[in-house]
Amino acid sequence: MGRSSCSPLTFLITGFSWLLLSSLMGLAIFIGLVNGTPLPSWLRLVHVHGLLIGGILQLMVGGLLASGSLNGQSDRTPSGSHLWLFVTLNAATVGLLVGFGFGNMLIVGAAGIVVIGSVISIAKRAWQYKPQSLPQSADPSWLYRFSLIALLGGLLVGVAMAFRLMPEYSAHARLFHLHAILLGFITMAMIGATHHFLPIILNTTLYSQRLAKFVMGLLPTGFIILIGGFITSSLYLELAIGGLLILGIILYAYNLFRTWAASGHPGNAASDHLFVATFFLVLMYGHGCARRNQLSPTTSGTAVWILTACSLYPYGLDRVYSTDCLWSPLLWHA
C-alpha cells in the first residue's frame, strides 16, 4: 500500500472502531440513566453522530469502494482521492463531535457541509452502482438510489438546523432529519442489501421476487407519505402510514424466513446475524409506531446495523473468490 493510498479495509476498520467507541459511550449513558446520575445531554448527540457518521456511513462507503471490482466496474478513482475522502470524512466526524461537545452550532454546521461534500464526491459512483444480476436474488439498485437521496436530504436539513436557517420549522426539520437518515437512508439500504445478499449467503433462490419488488416499492412510498404527515402534523396519517410500514417490514421478514426455510436451514453465522437484525428492525418499527413514529437511533436501530454489518464480514472471508460478495476485495486491497 502506497503512502498516498487508502484501501477500503481502512474505511471498514475505522468504521468499526467508531461503532465500538460510540456503543461504549451509549452504554455509559444508559448506565447513568439507570443509576439516576444522567450524563450531560450533549453526550447523546456525540454518541449518535459518532455512530451514524463515523461508524455506519464510513462502513457503507468502505463497502461501496470495495465492491467496485466485483461487478465488472473498473475503479478509475485514484487511490489518493480515497485517502482524501477518508481524511475529510473522519475530520468532519470529529468536527461534529467537538461542535456538539462545546455547543457550537457553527462548527457543527461547517462539519456537516464537509460530510455533504464527502458524500457528493462518491455520489455518482453510488448512483451508478448495480450489483451483479443473479437469478436467485433481488436487484436493490432502486433502494440504494433512494437511500442516497434520503441521505443527502437529511444532511442538508441537518446543516440548515445547525445554522438556524428555519427556526420556525425546527420541530418539523428535526423529524425529517432523523427519519431521512435512519429510515430513508440506513433502513432502505439495509433492506435492499439483505434482499440481495441473503440468497447468495444461503446458496438458494429468494422465495418471492414479486414480494421483494412490492416491499421495495411500498417502503419508500410509505416513507415519503410519512414525511408528508410530519409536515402537515396529521397524527392519523402518521399512524396509518406507520402501520403500512410495519406491514411492509413484516412482509420483508416473511420473505426472508421463507427463503431460509427453503434452503434447508443451513447453519450460517452470517444469515443468523441477518435474521437477528431483522428481528430488531421489526421491533424498532413497532416501537416507533407506538411512539407516534419516533424512531430511536440509540437502541434497536443501532443494533440492527451493527448486526447487519457484522453479518457480511465472515461471509466475505469464507467466499473470498465469490463473484458478488461485498467484502471479497478486502484481502486484495489490504
Care to give the gist of this entry?
It contains twelve helices and no strands. By secondary structure, the protein is mostly helical.
Task: Write up what this structure looks like.
With 334 residues, the chain is an all-alpha fold. It folds into two domains: 129 residues; 200 residues, Cytochrome c oxidase-like, subunit I domain (Cytochrome C Oxidase, Chain A). The protein is built from twelve helices and no strands. Helix 3 runs antiparallel to helix 4 and helix 7 packs antiparallel against helix 8. It starts with 7 loop residues before the first helix and ends with a helix. The C terminus is likely disordered.
Task: Give the tags.
disordered C terminus; 0% strand; 75% helix; 334 residues; 2 domains; Cytochrome C Oxidase, Chain A; globular; mainly alpha
- Secondary structure class reads mainly alpha
The CATH C-level name of the largest domain is Mainly Alpha
Number of helices: 12
CATH topology descriptor of the largest domain = Cytochrome C Oxidase, Chain A
Report how far the terminal alpha carbons are from each other. 7 Å
Q: Spans with pLDDT under 50 lasting ≥5 residues?
A: 69-74, 295-334
Percentage of residues in strands: under 5%
Gyration radius, to the nearest Å?
Answer: 19 Å
Shape: globular
Domains (count): 2
The CATH superfamily label of the largest domain reads: Cytochrome c oxidase-like, subunit I domain
Q: Average pLDDT across residues?
A: 79
Number of strands: 0
SSE string: HHHHHHHHHHHH
